[in-house]
Design brief:
By secondary structure, this protein is of the alpha/beta class. It has helices at about 40-45, 70-85, 100-115, 140-165, 180-190, 195-205, 210-215, 240-245, 260-265, 265-275; strands spanning about 1-5, 10-15, 25-30, 50-55, 90-95, 115-125, 220-225, 250-255. The chain has one domain: Alpha/Beta hydrolase fold, catalytic domain (Rossmann fold, 3-Layer(aba) Sandwich), CATH 3.40.50.1820.
């Protein structure tokens, strides 16, 4: 397996497939998953001649289960460690959910200043801020995220079964058939990671205000969101993010869930390819 060592000596697992001289796309996964969640996209873009790269966030998947650094600043820094180690140039960064927050912080802090980022895509992404505050009254109350923490601490294995079998993929909606393999794969990815990283990651994805990150991004950025996203409600995420981006484009999908990249991969992949080639 391939690993990059960060500045604070954390081993980050990564995949790097395709011709080294091809245009690179780097994928940033959601909580509490791993780079395996990008299988449908990585195979698709590999077949279209791209170089595809994805890493497991610290404490997730096959990366080192360290005690510290489970916050957006470290997530972005770790991503930059991979980019630098592979010397990736003109990169398209695609982030889902928490990975969308990671992309926003990465592009603002590292991608644009280094000149290495070309385009960005935020899919079902958490920015600008999920938590309800005085300045963000449309956000979700802290009790929602406290509930996540309590469920994780009480029985992580059951919690990681309940999320994908219900709201994540919209399998709790009438007329939507559950896909057992998809549910089991979500559970498998989650249980590979560290309970501590997952517990502390809830604060990272829910309480990090990324308004200034979005305002500073000038590269072309596509915002994709399912209109029936039950995990990251569209009104307090995508609809706000596109207004903060200097060069943002919004596309929404009626009836699509938070996990649309997996259960609606064919449509999403076509839209991603069109944006990258535009």
């Amino acid at each position: 397996m391939s690993f990059v060592t960060t500045k604070d000596d954390v081993e980050i697992f990564y995949k790097d497939w395709g011709p080294k001289d091809a245009r690179p796309i780097m994928f940033h996964h959601g909580w509490p998953l791993s780079s395996d969640d990008w299988d449908a996209q990585m195979l698709f873009f590999l077949q279209h001649g791209f170089r595809v790269v994805a890493h497991d966030r610290r404490g997730h998947g096959r990366s080192e289960q360290v005690s510290a650094g489970h916050d957006m600043d470290h997530y972005a820094s770790d991503a930059f460690a991979v980019v630098e180690a592979l010397d990736l140039q003109n990169v398209v960064h695609i982030g889902h959910s928490t990975g969308g927050g990671e992309v926003a912080r990465y592009v603002a802090k590292y991608g644009q200043p280094s000149g290495r980022a070309d385009k960005a895509v935020l899919v079902g992404a958490v920015p600008p801020l999920m938590l309800r505050t005085e300045a963000n009254p449309e956000g979700l109350p802290i009790e929602v995220f406290d509930g996540f923490r309590a469920a994780l601490a009480a029985n992580r294995a059951q919690f990681f079964r309940d999320v994908p079998s219900g709201p994540f993929y919209g399998f709790n909606r009438e007329g939507i058939s559950q896909q057992e393999g998809v549910i089991q794969n979500w559970w498998r990815q989650g249980m590979m990671g560290s309970a501590k990283a997952h517990y502390e990651g809830i604060k990272a994805f829910s309480e990090t205000d990324q308004t200034e990150d979005l305002k500073s991004i000038t590269i072309p950025t596509l915002v994709l969101h399912g209109e029936d996203d039950q995990i990251v409600p569209i009104a307090d995420s995508a609809l706000k993010s596109v207004e903060l981006l200097a060069n943002g484009t919004l596309k929404t999908y009626p009836g699509f869930s938070h996990g649309m990249l997996t259960v609606n991969a064919e449509e999403l992949n076509a839209d991603l390819l069109a944006f990258i080639e535009s």
